[in-house]
Amino acid sequence: MSELMIEKVWKEYGDQIVLEDVSLTVASRAFVALVGPSGCGKTTFLRMLLGQERPTRGAIRLDGEALPQEPGPDRGVVFQRYSVFPHLTVLGNVLLGRELSTSRYKAKLFGAARRSAVDEARRLIAEVGLSGAEDKYPAQLSGGMQQRLALAQALIMKPKVLLLDEPFGALDPGIRAEIHTLMKRLWHETQMTVVMVTHDMREAFTLATRVVAFERRRDRPEEKQRYGATITKDISIWPPRLAGAPPVFSPDRDGPVISLGLRRDDPASSPSGEKP
After folding, report:
1. pTM value?
2. Do the domain assignments include residue 267?
3. Residue 108: inside a domain, yes or no?
4. What is the CATH number of the domain that holds 84?
5. Number of domains in the chain
6. What's the chain's Rg over C-alpha atoms?
7. Tens digits of residue pLDDT in 89-116
8. What's the rounded Cα separation, in Å, for the pair 98 and 109?
9. What sign does the CA torsion over 122, 184, 142, 195 have?
10. ∠ CA 25-191-257, rounded to 5°
């Protein structure tokens, strides 16, 4: 299980309110996209889910337990800037998480443990489409290849939740489409819960099972810091899907489809007789 519960969360920096009374439940194996204007607190919210920031008020729970106050292996993350180590090869980057978790100070594995970890790393490298590049360094890879590497690096620890902070924003459209297809396949295979920040609405509706919009409801310029952003729309994508579950309609979509758009204060209902 990997259910996230965010309960009446506020985030303040001194007199500045960034997030205001945010409540959200993310079901296990869901794929949620967070959208909204720049500076409305989406990345701050993601950093709280990661454990890099703590809420000023409210609670965040993972599978009913309070979220640890620092990042851990149960939450993987991929940033827009390729978060890979330039001095390590592709294989070394993917192996590092396993090495650090087993031997925190030496960061080395030996014998059967190393052989098992190397086999798993090579399998992941193949899954993200980097077979044959195991001995290359990040500087020798294209942007799309580096982002594939970052995904493999995050997945080696088998996180319950994968957090994505605009991970595909810097990629060319053609490469981005390939990464979208890869991301959907990995999500189905790993059956993780995914939370992604994006400014690209097409990307949000292509990948996600649910799109959540952040916005300041009250945004007078002279009082900008007195009000924080909150969730103003919560849109469930039709047909509903979960990682690892067969799609309601076959084949699964490769682009945006008709969605069931609901405000948070609207009663949830399913369209009758509608097809995407």
Report:
1. 0.82
2. no
3. yes
4. 3.40.50.300
5. 1
6. 19
7. 999 999 998 888 876 666 777 888 889 9
8. 8
9. negative
10. 70
